[in-house]
Amino acid sequence: AQRVTQPEKLLSVFKGAPVELKCNYSYSGSPELFWYVQYSRQRLQLLLRHISRESIKGFTADLNKGETSFHLKKPFAQEEDSAMYYCAIIQGAQKLVFGQGTRLTINP
Amino acid sequence: EPEVTQTPSHQVTQMGQEVILRCVPISNHLYFYWYRQILGQKVEFLVSFYNNEISEKSEIFDDQFSVERPDGSNFTLKIRSTKLEDSAMYFCASSEAGRPTTNEKLFFGSGTQLSVL
After folding, report:
1. Beta bridge partner(s), residue A17
2. pLDDT tens sequence across B64-101
3. Which entry of A66, B24, B30, B38 is 20 to 30 Å from B3 by CA?
4. pLDDT tens by residue, B22-74
5. Strand pairing of A102-107 and A10-14?
6. Of residues A44, A93, A95, nearest to B108 (C-beta)
7. Cα separation, B84 vs B78, whole angstroms
8. Which pLDDT score, from 0 to 100, does residue B28 have?
9. How far is B3 from chain A (nearest CA, A)?
10. pLDDT tens column, A16-29
11. At a CB cut-off of 8 Å and minimum separation 6, what does B61 contact?
12. Which H or E element spans position A45?
């Protein structure tokens, strides 16, 4: 079964510093991966998906099949980036499998 | 942007009682989901629902759980006899199509925090 691992429960960086939230997956086929974000007191929302190769709010994530990783990166962190971030992979037809989540705190 | 609405935001119940969690998906969406998150753990898939029937369910979704779309707008999750371990945040979600792929997004509600005492 597909699985995602987010090794860091907590990550704290200073404003303006680069951010990298790690996500590794296990799946032998072609994975479909996502990053979801949950800001304080808000709902879980899609941040980006690997198929789109998009950049949202300055964040990017590249699928590395060799390392089975889908790390989320941003070159310059902003205070409003503080949130809970979840990596997720599709399993089967409709099911999203989430990682444990990483709580990102941006210090001023 | 349209939103998925969940009520109540908090629900406290006694062990063994039945609870119904309610969700109003986005109006033109066809696929509906329930996920849950036990405190400190990951968000877990419970069930997906399409065309008035369950299309997929997890091992968590046992006989104590049921889902229903009683009218054209609501989507409910019922737990018949709650257990302490059912305490969690329950998220409803909906999408236009079945897979959250490039062109389709999964929209989540803000969740119902269920506390079983």
Report:
1. none
2. 999 999 887 899 999 999 999 999 999 999 988 766 55
3. B38
4. 999 999 898 999 999 999 889 999 999 998 999 999 999 999 999 999 887 89
5. parallel
6. A44
7. 15
8. 87
9. 10
10. 999 999 999 998 77
11. B46, B47
12. strand A45-49
Cis check for the bond before A75: say yes or no (omega within 30 of 0). no
Of B6, B2, B1, the C-alpha closest to B90 is B6
**Closest residue, chain A, to B98 (C-alpha):** A94
Least confident of A1-10, A17-26, A49-58, B37-46: A49-58
Return the pLDDT at B101.
57
What are the backbone angles phi and psi of residue B59, rounded to the nearest 5°?
-70, -20
**Residue A53 falls in which region: left (phi positive, over 0), alpha (psi -120 to 50) or beta:** left
Which chain B residues touch A96 with a CB distance below 8 Å? 35, 43, 45, 100, 106
Torsion of CA B100, A24, A104, B111, to 10 degrees: 40
Please check whether residue A9 touches B, CB under 8 A.
no
> Which amino acid makes up residue A24?
N
Q: Does A103 touch chain B (CB under 8 A)?
A: no
Phi and psi angles of residue A52, each rounded to the nearest 5 degrees, phi first:
-75, -20
Q: How far is A96 from chain B (nearest CA, A)?
A: 7
